[in-house]
Amino acid sequence: QVQLVESGGGLVQAGGSLRLSCEGSVRTFSTYAVGWFRQSPEKEREFVATISWSGTSTYYADSVEGRFTISRDNAKNTVYLQMNSLSPEDTALYYCAATGLETLTIDYYGYDYWGQGTQVTVSS
Q1: Which residues of 69-87 are buried (b: 16+ CB within 10 A; e: fewer)?
Q2: Is 56 exposed, middle or buried (0-12, 13-18, 19+ CB in 10 A)?
Q3: For every one of its 124 residues, what pLDDT tens digit does the chain have, with 9 covering 90 and above?
Q4: Furthest CA-CA distance within the chain
Q5: Dihedral angle sign, alpha carbons of residues 92, 96, 101, 104
Q6: Distance of alpha carbon 76 from alpha carbon 39, whole angstroms
Q7: Which end of the chain is more exposed for a tag (fewer CB within 10 A), N or C?
Q8: Are the beta carbons of 33 and 22 closer than 8 angstroms?
Q9: Long-range contacts of 108-113 (CB under 8 A, 24+ apart)
Q10: CA-to-CA distance for 61 and 47, rounded, in angstroms?
């Protein structure tokens, strides 16, 4: 069982930056690929970014490509999401999720473990 805890959310003005963290509870966290998803009241859950267990492969949604960067530090059991040039459209509850799949996936049902989420609010 992997427990995930997100942190780093908050209120930021448009154009600002935030860095989200996702910490895994188990030593084997480094063997899981991790994804970030987001959901707002107006939209369905949306894929944001994903990273392989080694950190060598990443994939982004078109809406965040070039603005967000996903990375990981396996020594700290932590995955990060650096978010720059934020806009009000990025306002959502952000979740991280872990999967044992070897190939990167953007489908939420491919992930086995989920955190509780961290709120990101971008004001205009």
Answers
A1: bbebeeeebbbbbebeebe
A2: exposed
A3: 899 999 999 999 999 999 999 999 987 888 999 999 999 988 899 999 999 999 999 999 999 999 999 999 999 999 999 999 999 999 999 999 999 988 899 999 999 999 999 999 999 9
A4: 41
A5: positive
A6: 27
A7: N
A8: no
A9: 108/37, 108/45, 108/47, 111/35, 112/2, 113/1, 113/2, 113/3, 113/4, 113/32
A10: 6
CA distance 94 to 6: 8
